[in-house]
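Figure S4 source data
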Amino acid sequence: MDAPLQDCTIEEQRGVVRFLWTEGVKPVEIHRRVLAEYGQSNMSQRKVYEWVEKFKSGRTRVIDEGRSGRPSTSRSRKASSPQEYRK
C-alpha cells in the first residue's frame, strides 16, 4: 500500500491485531506492521501487547466493554492548585 491508512478506528486496528495474532505473528511484528500501515495514528506497542494478551485469554470482541462507575463530568480547565481552582 502506498499511503498509510490515516482514517481508521481503534477497533479496526484491534481487528488487525487479532487477525495477525491468530496467524501466529509476534506482537513486535504486529506493531511494526500496524505502524507501517496506519502511520502516526497507530496503537502503541504496549497496547498491541495488551490486546494480544486479551485475545490469548479468550476475548473475541474488539470494541470497548462497558465500565461500571461514575462517568467523568469535568469540563473545566485543569487547575494547578486547589486555591487557584476556587478563584
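Figure S5 source data
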Amino acid sequence: MKKKKVLRMTLISLVITASLYVVFFSKIDCKPTDAGFWFILALGMSIGVALTKFSEWYNSRHPDE
C-alpha cells in the first residue's frame, strides 16, 4: 500500500508542476534573477524524481530482468 501511495504522490507533484509550467509559459524568463528560472529548475527536479520512482516501481515488479 505504501508503494502505491508514493507513486501516486510523485505523479501528483509532476502533474501540478507541469500544469503550472503550461499555464505560465508565456511569462517565464530563463534568467537566473527571475523566478521563472527557479520554476524551470523545480520542473526538472520533479521530472527526475518521477523517473526515479517509476524505475524503482518497475524494478520492484520485475526483479528477474
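DSSP finds two helices and no strands in the chain. The helical segments are 2-23, 35-61.
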